[in-house]
Amino acid sequence: MITAILVMALGAVILGAALGYASIKFKVEGNPLVEKIEAILPQTQCGQCGFPGCKPYAEAIAEGEVDINLCPPGGIEGVRKLADLLGREVKPLEVEEKPKQIAIIDEQTCIGCTLCIQACPVDAIVGAAKQMHTIVESLCTGCELCIKPCPVECIRMEIISEDIDNWKWKYPVIEIKQVKQIA
To answer: What residues does [4Fe-4S] cluster 3 bind to (predicted)?
Structure first.
């Protein structure tokens, strides 16, 4: 019995060491530019840019296949940040910029079909089959992908009013350095 346990433990150690070595030896380096671009994008995974998520859009931008002004949730501020990073010209958005919004489910009308849950790219909808669903507001990105599949039209978008928790600078922040005066 103890021999079997020792053999299994030795096999696990050898296999673990082999996997550890392989992960170091065959490590695939990602494109650091793609990672920087993706960090600027809003991570809504909404597909409004024509790509299935923010990472594929970031990869296409890095390859020079598409322009930097296709992301409505990122807005013109996102375009400015991408232009600064990539040394490109700031262009207006291809589509109209929308105010920040979240989905609201009319829980009295919801039939629990789960189609909205399947459509949500960030798992912001909670519920079970044939049970009422609800939105986790802190996770909702306002991508509107849950509206179309709803058969009873119980989902609406509500604009989030600007308050201390979600405001942003409307203009680029200029860093002011303090200059010492010689007296």
So the answer is: 120, 140, 143, 146
